[in-house]
Amino acid sequence: MKKVLIPTDLTLYSLQLIRYALNLLQNESCHITLLHLTPASDSITDLLTLPRPQKPELEFNKALERLRRLHSVEIQDIQVTHMYCANSSDLKQFVRENQIDLVLSTVSRSRNTEALSFFNELLQDIPFPVLYIPEFFAPNSFRKIAFVLDVDVKNSALPDKELIDLLWRKECRVTFLLVFKPGTSTDNLTRALASLYSLPFLREVTYAVHLVQQRDVTEGIISFIDEYEVDLVVSCKKKSVLDYLRLGRQARSRERAITTKVPCLSVA
């Protein structure tokens, strides 16, 4: 059973992320925690004046009950948790104590409420798998998955067995994408590929490897997504060529383009 953490502002919109979690996990059972954060201060005076946790409206509770009934096999339990949170350390501790396997986040820039925006700000320093969902992406099965590798490969930049087991299904098409700039050392490319091919758990997985030479790495990734109609992009480092997914950062329009196309699973 997987434990999934999803932020909520107690609106029906925030419940949509549950469908993405179910599509990713497919038939595996899960426990879902809907976390509603209220910003807290380190000041004792401010703590005394904290507002009471917001109560969900009737329609939210009704929708939650429908989800429980509709997905009673896949979802063992859904719980709504309210939490006062001062910084990312508080959120990190919550994730660890509750043994969360996967965190979901929306990258909507027009519908983020204060609660969702606050969650996303804290999320950047959380060293756990995070699935970023673009605003206008319809839930579907992730059948074409692209793992983005770093030309300066380190062990942390490669997928581990748990990640492959989570994502790979027999009907999936898995591609490892290595985008490199002109002038990149052949030794670096050889070392990156050798590290990939040496992973023993990939022997049971059917996959392809694509090398793309592009001066602008981001453009290379976007072009590949367009051409091969990728459903899910996976980055094994949060601070990598996909770090423009970090909300709150002033990204250029070119860099934001990828977030409007496909979800991205970022693994620290």
UniProtKB/TrEMBL annotation:
All residue ranges annotated as the UspA domain in the record: 1-131
Protein species of origin: Hymenobacter volaticus
UniProt xrefs under Pfam families: Usp
Record keywords: Plasmid
Record-given protein name: Universal stress protein
Domain of life per record: Bacteria
Coiled-coil intervals, chain numbering: none
Signal peptide location: none
